[in-house]
Structures are given as C-alpha cells and as structure tokens.
Design a protein that fits this description.
CATH class: Mainly Alpha
CATH architecture: Orthogonal Bundle
Strand order of the largest sheet: 1-2-3
Strand content: 5-15%
CATH topology: Cytochrome-c3 Hydrogenase, chain B
Order of helices and strands: EEEHHHHEEHHHHHHEEEHHH
Helix content: 40-55%
Shape: globular
Number of helices: 13
Largest sheet: 3 strands, antiparallel
Number of domains: 1
Structural class: alpha+beta
Length: about 375
C-alpha cells in the first residue's frame, strides 16, 4: 500500500534533461550561462542566465563624477572597449557644448577601427574553438596582441586604454607610431589568406556553421538585431555611414553584407569588415600628418565640473553592433541618469533564447559565439 503522504510526480520523459552552458564556457565572451532543456540531443527550451560579471554599470555611473566614468565604461565590453569611451564622451560633449578638435576626431577613428579589428580577431578564434578548431584561436589571440601593443604605445594600457575623454583624447601619437600602425596592418592584411585557408574555407567549419542559427530579415528587425548580425541577413545598415559621427563622412568604405543570416554568414561579414577597417585606417594614416592642431579642448576642473542640465543621445557602430548612450544631467557634478543601449542585451538574451531552440547540443556553443555578445554589457 502507498503511504498516506504519497504524492504522484509527473516525471519528465526519460530522454529529457537539463544542461547548463556556463557560467564559464567558450560559447560566449565571458562569464554567462545558457540553461537548456534537451530532448535527446535537441534543445527544446533555452533560458539566458546573466549576472555572473560586473553588474549595475548604469547606476554606478550615476554615483561617479563625469570624468571618473571614463575609467568605468571600457569594462562594459572588454574585447572592444574603445566604442564605450567614445560614445560616452560624445554624449557628454553634446550636453556640455564642447567642440572636439579635428585632429582628435581622426585619432578617435584610428583607435576605433584598430579596436574593431582586434575584436574580430578575438571572435574568429572563439568561434573556431566552438567547432573543435583550436589553431585559429591561437592565431587570433597572437595577432590581436600586435594591436594591443599599439594601444599600449598610444595610451599606456593594452586593454583599458582610457584614452578618449570629453573634449578629445589624452595625448597625441608618439613619433613613428603611424609607421608602426602601417607595418601591423600590412602583416594582418597578409595573414587573411592564411585565415581563409585555415578557417573561413575549411570544410569542417563551413559544414558546421552553414544553416545554424538562421535569422531572416523579418526576425532581425523584430528582434532588434544590429551590427554584423543584421548585415548577415542582407540588411545594409551601419551607423558610421547612415548617421555619421566624428569624420566618418570624409572616409571611403563599403558595408559588407551576406544573405543567409546563419552562423556562417555572420562570420563572413566580420571577415569582410576587417578589410574595410584596414582600408579606413590607411586613409587615416595618410591624412593625419596634414591635420594640425590640438588633440583636446580644455574642460573645467574635472573634480568640480558641472555639466549643464539637459539630455543627450549618442550612438556609434561598435564591432558588436549599434551602441548608444542616453545621458541626463541635472546640472550637477555627476550624471543624473545613464542608459546604455548595447547590442549584446538583445543578441545574448532574446535572440539567443530563440535561436537555441531546435539546435543540436553540439551547435549551441557556436550559435552563442556567432552572435558575438559581451556578457558585462548584459549585466549593465
């Protein structure tokens, strides 16, 4: 006989179980978890689980002086921190009515595009590793280090440069820096054929990535997909061209697109973007010697700086997609409100949860990485 307190339990099917990808997993750039429910080896339910990294950036910024936030914002996206500095500075400059010197604008673009290349190299290696290919990962990290060498020479910091600040940049380029940039670009440009042979046209990767995590144009717009993930669906939108900032309207570059909208297409778009970034940087290197003048507009004492009351919305095109800051000032020494519109908040949560359903378990990690999200940005 059954005991009096016996309760019937609806047990799941014997082939159904739960699995955690994370919070420390190569499927995404940092500590992040995707909790999936599997039937056999197929995902039937997925739930993003953030909160394992730095949290509360927006509220932290409201408790710091305007200038202090420059040291905080790069941590919101470690692989591509420069757009965070630039976008925040653009918003504050708009509030304060500060005009940035022309030379500083060119230097910002130089650093932005170097950061884009470095971020894409990091992405290629990580995505390759999710399909069992580790050599591209070692190559990507090693080649990215050459760009970090340039950041260290320019700013004193390899990852968090804290180089851009309201009014311009901290300092001008050192002697011989443009030649070293050119030498590094020549090396990276020459390496692309090796990456093509090892990774982009490798049939192991092509067969694994094609048809995985497909997004069509209608879904992309409905889900707020942006950046390379949007352009991989055939939608040609780039903030640098369509809402230009700094001196991007003076530069020539194309907007690469693909049509398939899958993990393969997202990787190819980033591969093509590297070529365009190299093209942009070469134009900057050629123009900079003829652009004279200061690199920073003086601001009041930063420890007692009161930015005029008002609100500002600034946006840039980061390597992950459209990045925007909405900043409100009440005339005080600190921001009154800050809201960050980052691409990873959409890609790593609502898009990933939808794309993971239907995936086989071995394709979950590469679906995650193909979206190229920054977990700290989700935890903002």
């Amino acid at each position: 006989m059954r005991p009096e307190n016996y309760q019937s339990v609806n047990h799941p099917p014997s082939n159904e179980f739960e699995l955690n990808f994370g919070p420390n997993h190569p499927g995404i750039e940092g500590n992040y978890a995707l909790k999936v429910k599997l039937q056999g080896d197929t995902v039937v339910e997925a739930r993003a689980d953030a909160g394992y990294l730095h949290r509360g950036f927006e509220k932290l910024m409201e408790d710091r002086l305007w200038i202090q936030n420059i040291a905080l914002v790069p941590r919101i996206c470690v692989p591509d921190p420069v757009p965070m500095e630039v976008c925040y500075s653009l918003a504050v400059e708009d509030l304060a009515g500060i005009e940035v010197p022309e030379r500083a604008q060119w230097l910002r673009v130089l650093q932005l595009e170097l950061s884009r290349i470095a971020a894409h190299l990091f992405y290629f290696g990580g995505h390759a590793a999710t399909t069992g290919m580790y050599t591209p990962m070692y190559w990507g990290v090693a080649d990215r280090d050459l760009l970090l060498d340039l950041f260290e020479e320019l700013t004193g910091g390899r990852v968090y440069s804290i180089y851009n600040l309201p009014g311009g940049v901290r300092q001008d380029i050192p002697d011989g820096f443009l030649q070293r940039v050119t030498d590094t670009l020549n090396y990276i440009d020459g390496r692309l054929k090796d990456y093509d042979n090892l990774f982009f046209t490798n049939q192991i990767f092509v067969k694994r990535a094609k048809g995985i995590g497909t997004i069509n144009q209608e879904q992309a717009l409905e889900w707020s997909v942006t950046g390379p993930n949007l352009r991989a669906c055939g939608l040609e939108f780039d903030v640098r061209r369509d809402d230009p900032y700094l001196i991007y309207d003076q530069l020539k570059f194309d907007i690469p697109t693909e049509q398939a909208g899958d993990a393969w297409a997202r990787t190819l778009v980033r591969r093509l973007e590297m070529v365009e970034s190299i093209r942009i940087i070469r134009q900057v290197v050629k123009a900079l010697p003829d652009i004279k003048g200061p690199v920073r507009t003086p601001i009041p004492n930063p420890l007692a700086w009161r930015v005029p009351a008002g609100d500002s919305y600034a946006r840039v095109e980061s390597s992950k997609g459209e990045l925007a800051y909405y900043v409100v000032s009440n005339g005080g020494e600190k921001p009154y409100r800050v809201h960050i519109r980052g691409p990873s908040a959409m890609h790593a949560v609502q898009v990933l949860e939808k794309l993971a359903v239907g995936c086989r378990v071995e394709d979950v990690a590469q679906t995650m990485f193909s979206l190229d999200a920054c977990p700290p940005e989700v935890d903002r």
